[in-house]
Design goal:
This protein is an alpha/beta fold and about 280 residues long. Helix 5 crosses helix 6.
Length: about 280
C-alpha cells in the first residue's frame, strides 16, 4: 500500500493533520483473511503518520498527530454479507482507537436496501464513528461535511450509465444547504463535481470513487466506474479555478486495478504562507 503526503492551504491558524481512506470495498467476495490484512495495512499507515509530542520529553517539539480519519465511502461494496460488515466495523473501531473517525457514504452503500443501510449506520454510530450523511460536524475548529448524492448521479435504477444526473451547485445546496463554516473539509465520494463543491464553499475536498482510473498508464487513469474513458480526475491533488479550493482524489484500496497501487493519504491542512506574509 502506497503512502502519499499532501499539504493543503486553507483558512486555519494551526496545522491540522488528517488521514484519508477511501474505497476499501470489503465485500462478499473478499475473504476475512484479506479484510484483516487490509485492516492491518491501513492501521500501519495511520501509525506512520500519527506523531504526537511525547509529554515525557520536554525537548520533543514535534506535534503532528492525526487529528481525524476521513473515510469517504464505499467501505463495503453493494455485494455485501455479514462478514464484510463485521470486518468493516472492526476496521472503524480500531481506527477510532487512535483518532476520531468521520465517515461519508459512497454509491455502493446507497445502493443497499434502506433497512440494511440504516441498520449498518446505526451500528457504525455505536462505535463512536461520526456518520456524515448530508450532515456536518466540527472537530478541533475544522468543519467536516459529508455529501450523499442521489443514486442517479452514479447510475440509473435499470443499471444504465446514460444521461446521469449532473452535479452542479444547486444539487449540492439541495443536499447540504449552505456551507456551515470555515475551514470546511467536504467528504464527497465522487470527484466529478469538483467545480460545484468549490462554488458551494468547500476549502478542501476529499474524494475517491474513480479507483485511480482502474488501469493506469504512467500518470493517466483510463477508466471510470461510469464506463467513461480518460476521466478528468483520477488520482492526486487538484486546485479550483480560483485557487480557493483543493481536492484530493484517492485511488482507493479495493477492487480490480492494474499499475494502480492502493493508497492511504496523509493531508496537512495549513495556513497559506503567502497570506501570512
Amino acid at each position: 500500500m502506497e503512502r502519499r503526503h499532501e499539504l493543503f492551504f486553507v483558512p486555519i491558524e494551526r496545522r491540522f493533520r488528517l488521514l484519508h481512506v477511501s474505497d476499501v470495498h470489503f465485500s462478499v467476495v473478499t475473504s476475512h483473511e484479506h479484510n484483516a490484512r487490509v485492516t492491518e495495512e491501513i492501521l500501519e499507515q495511520l501509525a506512520f503518520y500519527h506523531m504526537p509530542a511525547d509529554p515525557a520529553d520536554p525537548e520533543d517539539d514535534l506535534d503532528d498527530p492525526v487529528r481525524v480519519v476521513c473515510v469517504t465511502g464505499d467501505l463495503i461494496s453493494r455485494g455485501y454479507d455479514d462478514k464484510s460488515m463485521e470486518d468493516a466495523l472492526t476496521l472503524l473501531r480500531r481506527l477510532q482507537e487512535t483518532a476520531p473517525v468521520v465517515y461519508s457514504l459512497g454509491n455502493h452503500e446507497t445502493d443497499w436496501p434502506e433497512d440494511v443501510l440504516h441498520g449498518f449506520l446505526a451500528r457504525v454510530r455505536e462505535t463512536g464513528v461520526i456518520v456524515l450523511d448530508n450532515e456536518s460536524a466540527e472537530i478541533g475548529g475544522v468543519t467536516f461535511t459529508g455529501l450523499t448524492l442521489p443514486r442517479s448521479v452514479f447510475r440509473h435504477e435499470n443499471g444504465s450509465y446514460r444521461r446521469l444526473t449532473p452535479i452542479n451547485e444547486d444539487l449540492v445546496r439541495e443536499c447540504l444547504g449552505h456551507c456551515p463554516g470555515h475551514p470546511n473539509v467536504l467528504l464527497a465520494h465522487t470527484p466529478l463535481g469538483f467545480d460545484a463543491y468549490a462554488a458551494w464553499g468547500a476549502d478542501a475536498v476529499l474524494s475517491g470513487h474513480i479507483h485511480g482510473g482502474i488501469v493506469r498508464v504512467g500518470n493517466v487513469g483510463l477508466l471510470s466506474p461510469e464506463r467513461r474513458f480518460l476521466p478528468k480526475y483520477t488520482k492526486g491533488r487538484f486546485l479550483s479555478e480560483d485557487r480557493c479550493c483543493t481536492m484530493n482524489v484517492s485511488a482507493g484500496i479495493g477492487k480490480f486495478r492494474i499499475n494502480d497501487p492502493p493508497e492511504v493519504i496523509c493531508i496537512d491542512l495549513m495556513a497559506d504562507p503567502a497570506e501570512e506574509g
